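Box 3.1 A note on notation
Throughout this textbook, protein chains are presented in two layers. The first layer is the amino acid sequence; the second is a token string describing backbone geometry. Keep the layers aligned when reading.
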Amino acid sequence: MNWLFDSITEGTLYNWELALGDSFFLISIAILAVELIRYAVRKRLNWRLAGDTVTNFVTQAFFVSLGLVLFYAFYLATFSVAAGFALFEIPVNGMTLVAAVLLADFMYYWEHRFSHRVAAAWATHTVHHSSPHFNMSVAYRFGPMDAFWSVFFYVPLVLIGFNPYLVLFAEAIVLLYQTFLHTEIVGKLPRPIEWLMNTPSHHRVHHGTNKPYVDKNYGGVFIVWDRLFGTFAEETETVEFGVSPQVESVNPFVVFFHGFARLWRAVRDEPRFGDKLRVLVKPPGWKPERQALVIASPHSGRGNLTAARGAPSSRGA
């Protein structure tokens, strides 16, 4: 067991991350091929689905290009500054790698929850959820600022004393694990695994617009965080994927920027400056208390005046 305490260099972590990323991508492409054959056999393969699949990879290209230009330097600068204020100097070895992954997964839960419950963050994360399909290509569907918010949730690990490269590697492990969760071809796994780990079934729920599924199952590697903090939902009915309203386009530019376009319209439509700011920090779909919606009653045929106070619209998770 001495290998658990053997030192791991930053260069080794970097090479591992590259190798894992390439391997996961190749495996996911192979699984996607199986999924497309399955779509064809079930007569679900059409030009719309094909276009959506291509768009997923185009958004990834946009995201990577933008990330290299803007966010990679931001990440390194933030982590470098934080490392100068670290409480401890934690060595990099097998034991601390495991600890870093566990803590990174815990922080990912809160980052992910934040991305759903704060409109300014949802504006970028909604891109990932906007596909009405669910296959391996969706794992590569990114928004323009997906790399921005996460730094604020992982920098505490650097402040504790974890090596910045170890934190980045741990974050990569959490994200890579979720690649294989984006599929409909895997049903439910044995109960102990379903109880502890995030699985394709749990992640299908997370991508659902069904009312019981909205804002559920934020976990990355482990689903126990959702069980602990009251955001867990079991897959009990057929999942309706996407967001509400759906993005009726496979144009990668429309898909990539639709969240910010919707957020801009929501901010623009509020006459009061304070409410414009609240639109950014409140849950998606929030409206000020003074506003009201006329909801048609299916029984009387008359409208009921209902205040739209702080409740997010149904949008998918």
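Residues 2-254 form one domain. Confidence is low (pLDDT under 50) at residues 292-317.
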